[in-house]
């Protein structure tokens, strides 16, 4: 019998893993042999190694697309190996580096034009991946913002939804996320990071920064709306599964989620973590979001009450709410519904 943390991870995360590109058979085979949470990282890294080996075999035979697709799968396995896993921070860092390396290897085969962009930020750096649709001289730009303990390595297939519709994507590791989490912590004023990104990209001729959208998932939904409130260069914003008041969610959050937030917020204990979570609120800010705004939510969300999405939408001057009765957190159990909806809506707003 798996311990409660493993059972919770399997029950809550399967739709997310599959929506992001993990093969459903891999998910069930891998999790079936994990009994203790301490085994989680090793099991997923072993699967990542298998897909990385398949990629290298394909490379040796000149099968570029096959290699690239296998590297994407490897990157996802390494990423999800260390997702919310704080048992051994050095092993966690190693798995994260493997995810980064595998994704850039995938880019070499599947999107050679993809670029790593480093952004100076308060004495350290943020990192993002820029991808542009082929055959376009000057593309509108969509910033993709991850949530708690997520990272750009999770977004390859999410990016494709926008790229296929003629929009460039920039997946950001912001404060407390991905490559930036070693030197930064989660903070409420995420708009500072978005400003730094747009300043960095401002001189590019291949991007149309008069047409910028921002899309955030989970806690990234809060970041997206907060950024739109303060950054006038954003023309349209989407929040998917994001909180109105993260502190109000705290009592019902799973233990793994609380532990990860405490760690990435730089808090000393749960009491301080809860205080910092309370800082992540849209209360008193949404009247500043004059841009078109789309709020997407699933009524079966176990992390954030659906009533918070209604509150968010009700306070937006130019907001629209799409509530899926069957949707879970970030609606990852119905990606075929929410993903094209979001990409089409953003494209129409930036047209």
Brief characterization of the structure:
The protein has 351 residues and is of the alpha/beta class.
| Name of the CATH class of the largest domain | Alpha Beta
Biggest sheet: strands, sense, closure? Answer: 8 strands, mixed
| Overall radius of gyration | 19 Å
- The count of DSSP E runs of length 2 or more, i.e. the number of strands, is 8
What is the CATH homologous superfamily assignment of the largest domain? Alpha/Beta hydrolase fold, catalytic domain
Percent of residues in beta strands? 15-25%
The overall pLDDT, averaged over residues, is 97
| Helix/strand order | HHHHHEEEHEHEHEHHHEHEH
What's the structural domain tally? Answer: 2
Q: Which stretches are low in confidence, meaning pLDDT under 50 for 5 or more residues running?
A: none
End-to-end CA span: 53 Å
**Percentage of helical residues?**
40-55%
- Tally of separate helices: 13
Q: What does the overall shape look like?
A: globular
CATH architecture of the largest domain: 3-Layer(aba) Sandwich
**Strands of the biggest beta sheet: in what spatial order?**
1-2-4-3-5-6-7-8
Model description:
It is globular and about 50 Å long. Helix 7 crosses helix 8 (219-230). It has helices spanning 4-20, 24-32, 40-60, 64-82, 89-110, 156-163, 191-201, 219-230, 246-249, 255-264, 270-278, 306-315, 335-350, and strands at 115-121, 124-131, 139-145, 168-173, 207-217, 234-240, 293-298, 319-324. By secondary structure, the chain is an alpha/beta fold. The model has no long low-confidence stretch (mean pLDDT 97). It has two domains: 1-110, Up-down Bundle (de novo design (two linked rop proteins)), CATH 1.20.1440; 113-351, Rossmann fold (3-Layer(aba) Sandwich), CATH 3.40.50. It has an eight-stranded mixed β-sheet with strand order 1-2-4-3-5-6-7-8, with helices on both faces.
